[in-house]
Amino acid sequence: MHTAITIDALKVLDAIDRKGSFAGAAAALFRVPSAISYTVQKLEEDLNVSIFDRSGHKAVLTPAGRYLLDEGRSLLAAAENLAHTTRQVAQGWETRLRIGFNALLPAECLFPAIQDFLQLGVPVEVQIIEEVFAGAWDALQSRRVDLVVGADQLSKPAGSFATRKLGEIPFVFAVAPRHPLASTSAPLSDNEIARYTSVAAADTSRTLPPGHAGIFQRQHTLTVTNIDQKIAAQEAGLGVGWLPTPRVAEALAAGRLVAREVENPRSSVAVYLARHETDQGKALMWFWDRLTSDEGLTKWLQPSPV
């Protein structure tokens, strides 16, 4: 569909407004004044509106002309951004990078790296998406995300994926201080634990088999959306369960949660960076290299055993 409003016409109006005259606009755009006048006249004819009021000694924008220019400047900025982004894409930068992170880690563990990336000034939109259990691998496999931070090995699907080990996440069995299990002294047996409601974070996987770590088949379960809600529910005494130790260190120190020994302790979970083997975008690889030894992640992970 033909439209009378072109990027060039908007540039002419912008130059006239900034320079205060047709002659000034002509000089700024390296054109002859007659070319400026023709562009404005053609635009007025095509739109069937008066863009400038020429009744005085100086051409002044009409209300319609002012509206056109104000809205048109947004289009000029978008066009400039599009041109810049296109050049960046041609140089290997993606327009968008979606980073999925395992809910065992907090979103803020990514903030230092994202802050440094934003300082590069490249027009790449960064999205961070929380995933639970097998949802991290599921999101990568289905390309809902481009990079996963904190992928485990247990739910890894078949496929050509590149991985880098980040470290390990230890777990603690925790209950609220007023919960019945908080007052016992001996290590808790599976039977004792199974008598009380377990709090679980819902697996976000859509196609891969969901996980259900630390829950007994005969145990009542309260299911929440993510680890933050799981921690809050256990602090409220609504149930019990395993929690990533770094995420609840403060709650344990403050007495909002109590750590309990169990007869069958849960092992630490090794977590990885993961991406599709063939993906090599500049933004992806920047985060791939940066997050391998990032301080924002180090505080939430323990080193892998040698």
TrEMBL record:
HTH lysR-type domain mapped to chain residues: 5-62
Keyword line: DNA-binding, Transcription, Transcription regulation
InterPro entries assigned to the protein according to its UniProt record, in alphabetical order: LysR_HTH_N (IPR000847), LysR_subst-bd (IPR005119), WH-like_DNA-bd_sf (IPR036388), WH_DNA-bd_sf (IPR036390)
GO MF: DNA-binding transcription factor activity; transcription cis-regulatory region binding
Superkingdom of source: Bacteria
Family to which the UniProt record says this protein belongs: Belongs to the LysR transcriptional regulatory family.
Protein name in UniProt: LysR family transcriptional regulator
Organism annotation: Marinobacter fuscus
